[in-house]
Design a protein that fits this description.
The complex is a heterodimer of chains A (387) and B (605). In chain A, the strands form four sheets. Chain A has a nine-stranded mixed sheet with strand order 9-10-8-7-6-5-4-1-11, with helices on both faces. A three-stranded antiparallel sheet of chain A has the order 12-13-14, with no helix packed on it. Chain A is built from 15 helices and 17 strands. The longest helix of chain A is centred in the middle third of the chain and has 17 residues, at 219-235. Chain A has 387 residues and is α/β, with parallel strands linked by helices. Helices cover 25% and strands 33% of the residues of chain B. Chain B has 14 helices and 33 strands. Chain B has an eight-stranded antiparallel sheet with strand order 11-10-16-7-8-15-12-13. In chain B, strands 2-3-1-4-5-6 form a six-stranded mixed sheet, sandwiched between helices. In chain B, strands 21, 22, 23, 24, 25 and 26 form a six-stranded antiparallel sheet that branches. In chain B, helix 12 runs antiparallel to helix 14 (589-595). The A-B interface holds A 16, 31, 67, 196-199, 219-220, 222-223, 226, 243-244, 255-256, 259, 265, 267, 271-275, 280, 282, 305, 315, 318-319, 322, 340, 344-345, 347-348, 350, 363-368, 370-371, 374-375 and B 527-528, 548-563, 566, 569-570, 572-573, 576, 581, 584.
């Protein structure tokens, strides 16, 4: 995609809906999720609809994203109720991307059809691997064959925008098994693929077991696997447009493009984060606390950060640099490039400025760039009027 | 003026933790110098650091009044001595103010090397040495064995060795009586011109420099003009008095008396410990013997981690010097570490104390370079130059010879550790000399060794090889020419002056290999490959590489975690502030410390 196409999303309006329910919590997951509480789903959805209904008016949405948790875990009717609430409150533009995450083990043709009929047009499968041993060590609850049948179900129900998530660098995964996963995933001809390095987060079961001596992912191996993925996915006609995301042309995830373009997005549900009117805000993380607050007529907000002036400029560079197209040059990039750190990043070939844009050439080193970006001090007096 | 026959001046010679401070407390209590309410644990150790380490850095002194069994009241001046090898000059000055010394040994641990060394100092100074065993209340106490060891050091009969417990007070009355009986009263001519020994000094924010003095001859009178003979400065004796332990001003002090003298001088280096105070009106012809200038033995560069703290470091050093005339420094510039100071210390403990105080009391983050010694380099013209930093060493073609300082070291150890200690000493180029059995279980080992070989962590290794039982003391033993080379460490092709070291040629390869290996593990991966090399002159003797980072990225960064992610990255960035930029390479501060640490194999630095 061209830089202009990517930057256009700065004016988009998007929405995120969090569905925290899962059949089990995966050992590496540090999202706001719960297992075995599906009986809460109806009450929760009621609360989400109320949060939507109580929110300030806004323009029609161009992208909607149901993430989790496992949105496909709960009754389809509940998901469409939320979608209807969004339509009522904001409207959803014609041709908007309406996406949900799903697990391969519970995605039937029947369910696919109902979701499609309810207005969803993009589905993202948490496939993670096609290797049974890797799936087992990630404690996933599906087999490779179910990925294949889920994708087929989605296609037959009329989903023309299908994404698949993979995880690489799991201890025990081999070069060969990763190659096989990539081969099998491309054979399914998805529109979009995300590949994530397995990350050990503190407070997760994986974090605890690594701390007590279990093998941790090897960053050099993960770098190798990333290179393999980039090579293979590009060969199959997918282009990388962000650190961990590849797609067919035009099938980039618009919800995420909005986030990376520093566009506005509203967010609903427990632990959800939004960005609207220069504020990055977040809801309470616990499911019960979220529902209690909504039912008591209280706000579910847990906090917010005002992002303006120089912070907003650094924030723009921060989120935008995740993209292959990088960011348009501006005060933030100029300050970075004039700093010692910026010069050493250029010297090491990590970043370059070309045609009025700063881009990261070594996406696997993006955090090193980010740390330097966030460390830049702005001019002493800065207001939007000066900008 | 106190009757000379009623004065007893003594100090206590004891190893760290052998109970000197507790005994001093007990004596204060017994003689009523301090009431119970005023009593604090270990009153004499007043600096926080001393309390924590259980050592006495600066000597303090106290005047006690004791009514003996003969119904006469005696003045007992307890002159405290620093208990560490680094301060042997200060110890010798304190002892010069006494007629007697109490040799105090722990009933469980027996005699330690520095106790022996200080006992020899006391005997050489002609003091009456009274042996005593402390901590007889301990379950592990073996007073007979300890007494035998004491007798092995100073002679005499085990029956004459006092036994006491400073903790419970047992034996303290006997001790007081023995002091009165055995310590000779001071001599000195009250009518002769004044001669008083300055045996310690400290800086008081309100009063300026306070000197501790012992009058030898004549009279010291409040308000008199006094002359300091070594510096030849004349000042007025604004106030003189006794320490009981609170200051008690008096009008005059006669021979044998011990107290303080305040002249209004504000700069501590203008008052020299060991100097003689005389009357300006009627000066003595000869100063008291034994005065020496403090001589630093160990040198290390101190650099603020944050270059902006340079001035703060200078101010802190100046403040420390108010109380420590032996601390010396000059500005030093390091390519790797920026602006700092090359500091000279009396020894290793002194260095550690200064560093700790700078960091703790003055809130400074410091990087210290490897300690080094003063080398004497003979230049082609025959001129000899002293050189205190590896960076100053001329190239091999520009020098004729390098001589390094040696010390005579004494180790006291349980006999079973003789083997490991000999091995350690010889691996550090030590030449073992005499071996003396103080008792069947305890041995004194004497050897000569380059100071450079013990300034790093010889103590630590000695302790670990002997389970903490061996003790060490040393004294300078001149310079000797040796085959020394400078090994440079290069990071990304740039020599890092902080890592340069002067080592014996035979150890150079090992030093280079170890340092490059260690640094490879200590330096985090960077955006590019970082070669680490060791070199003698232009010759590379060892090489390692820190491979470039390949992965430094968050896999997922979506709308949900942007604020959190930013904060996490900012925190990581904060952590990186403790990095020093060496050329283009980020080196964690800890790397400087860790790389220079000696390991069990005994390789220095």
């Amino acid at each position: 995609m061209t830089p202009d196409e990517a930057d256009r999303f700065v004016t988009a309006a998007a929405a995120y809906v969090h569905i925290p329910f899962c059949s089990a919590v995966c050992p590496y997951c540090d999202f706001a999720v719960v297992a075995g509480q599906d009986e809460m789903a109806a009450r929760y959805v009621e609360a989400v609809c109320r949060e939507i209904g109580d929110s300030a008016e806004w323009r029609p949405l161009e992208a909607v994203y149901f993430g989790g948790g496992t949105p496909s875990q709960i009754d389809t009717a509940l998901l469409t109720r939320i979608l209807d609430a969004l339509r009522r409150r904001y409207g959803v533009s014609d041709g908007a991307e309406v996406s949900l995450e799903a697990n391969p083990e519970d995605f039937s043709v029947d369910r696919a059809r109902r979701l499609r009929a309810g207005g969803f047009n993009r589905v993202s499968f948490g496939a993670q691997s096609f290797d049974g041993a890797v799936l087992a060590s990630l404690r996933r609850r599906h087999e490779a064959q179910q990925i294949v049948s889920s994708v087929a179900a989605a296609r037959s129900a009329g989903f023309d925008n299908v994404s698949i998530d993979l995880i690489y660098g799991t201890p025990g995964e081999t070069d060969q098994s990763w190659e096989t996963s990539l081969e099998q995933v491309t054979a399914l001809e998805p529109d979009h693929i995300s590949c994530y390095a397995l990350t050990v987060e503190p407070g997760t079961a994986l974090g605890r077991s690594v701390r007590s001596g279990a093998p941790a992912p090897d960053p050099d191996i993960q770098a190798d696997r990333y290179e393999t993925a980039d090579r293979r996915l590009k060969a199959s006609g997918l282009a990388r447009y962000e650190v961990s995301n590849w797609s067919r042309p035009g099938r980039e995830c618009r919800y995420n493009l909005t986030v990376w373009a520093q566009g506005d997005y509203v967010a609903f549900g427990n632990g959800a984060h939004g960005f609207r009117e220069r504020r990055r805000y977040r809801n309470v993380r616990r499911l019960d606390a979220y529902v209690d607050r909504i039912e008591a007529g209280d706000t579910p907000r847990a906090g917010q950060d005002l992002v303006d002036g120089w912070d907003a400029e650094l924030d723009r560079v921060f989120v935008g640099l995740r993209r292959t197209v990088g960011v348009a040059s501006g005060a933030g990039t100029e300050t970075l490039l004039a700093s010692d750190e910026g010069r050493s990043l250029v010297g090491a070939g990590v970043i370059t400025e070309e045609d009025g844009r700063l881009v990261v050439n070594k996406p696997m080193l993006t955090d090193a760039v980010h740390r330097s970006v966030l460390a830049q001090s702005g001019p002493i007096v800065w207001s939007d009027d000066d900008a | 003026m106190t009757d000379q026959s009623r004065i007893r001046n003594f100090s206590i010679i004891a190893h760290i933790d052998h109970g000197k401070s507790t005994l001093a407390d007990r004596l204060l209590e017994r003689t009523g110098a301090v009431t119970g309410r005023e009593m604090r644990e270990q009153l004499l150790d007043s600096m926080d650091l001393e309390r924590e380490r259980g050592i006495t850095i600066k000597a303090q002194t106290v005047r006690l009044e004791y009514e003996a069994n003969d119904a006469k009241t005696y003045v007992l001046n307890l002159i405290d001595t620093p208990g560490h090898v680094d301060f042997s000059y200060e110890v010798s000055r304190s002892l010069a103010a006494c007629e007697g010394a109490l040799l105090l040994a722990d009933a469980a641990q027996g005699v330690q090397a520095q106790t022996v060394a200080n006992s020899y100092l006391a005997i050489d100074a002609g003091l009456e040495v009274i042996p005593a065993i402390n901590k007889i209340d301990l379950p592990a106490a073996d007073p007979d064995r300890a007494a035998a060891e004491v007798v092995g050091v100073i002679g005499g009969s085990p029956n004459d060795v006092l036994r006491l417990s400073a903790k419970t007070g047992e034996g303290v009355d006997d001790l007081l009586e023995t002091l009165v009986k055995e310590v000779p009263p001071p001599g000195g001519d009250p009518d002769a011109p004044l001669r008083a020994l300055v045996f310690d000094s400290y800086f008081d924010a309100y009063r300026g420099v306070v000197c501790y003095v012992r009058v030898v001859d004549g009279r010291l009178e409040s308000g008199d003009a006094v002359r300091f003979m070594a510096t030849n400065e004349v000042h007025e004796a604004d106030e003189i008095g006794f320490l009981r332990p609170k200051a008690q001003p008096v009008a005059d002090m006669g021979p044998g008396e011990v107290g303080y003298l305040i002249t209004g001088v504000k700069e501590i280096d203008r008052i020299k410990v060991g100097d003689t105070v005389t009357s300006n009106r009627r000066p003595a012809e000869k100063a008291l013997p034994g005065y020496e200038e403090p001589k630093p033995m160990v040198f290390s560069g101190l650099f603020p981690t944050d270059g902006d703290d340079f001035e703060k470091l200078r101010e802190a050093l100046e403040k420390l010097r108010l109380n420590d005339a032996s601390l010396a420094w000059e500005p030093e510039t390091s390519k790797a570490l920026g602006f700092g100071f090359r500091c000279g210390f009396l020894g290793l403990l002194h260095m550690e104390i200064v560093r700790e105080r700078l960091e703790r009391e003055y809130d400074l983050d410091l990087v210290a370079t490897a300690p080094s010694v003063a080398y004497r380099v003979t230049l082609p013209g025959g001129e000899v130059k002293e050189m205190r930093s590896p960076q100053d060493l001329p190239e091999p073609t520009d020098r004729e010879a390098i001589a390094e300082p040696y010390v005579k070291a004494m180790i006291l150890t349980p006999s079973e550790y003789v083997g490991p200690i000999m091995e350690l000493a010889t691996s550090r180029r030590g030449i073992v000399g005499n071996m003396t059995y103080l008792s069947p279980e305890r041995v004194e080992l004497d050897f000569e060794i380059p100071l450079a070989e013990i300034v790093f962590d010889f103590f630590d290794i000695l302790k670990s090889r002997t389970k903490g039982y061996a003790s060490l003391d040393y004294e300078p033993a001149g310079y000797r020419v040796a085959d020394l080379v400078k090994v440079d460490i290069l990071l990304n092709g740039q020599p890092v002056d902080a890592f340069s070291a002067i080592v014996h040629r035979d150890n150079a390869q090992e030093y280079g290999t170890k340092m490059t290996g260690r640094l490879r593990n200590l330096i985090p991966r960077q955006l590019f490959d970082v070669p680490i090399q060791a070199a003698i002159g232009g010759r590379i003797i060892s090489r390692e590489t820190v491979k470039a980072t390949r992965k430094d990225v968050t896999a997922k960064c979506y709308g949900g975690d942007i604020s959190r992610k930013k904060k996490l990255l900012q925190r990581q960035k904060e952590g990186k502030k403790r990095m020093k930029m060496v050329g283009s390479v980020e080196v964690p501060q800890e790397a400087f410390v860790a790389a220079l640490k000696v390991d069990e194999s005994g390789l220095k630095p």
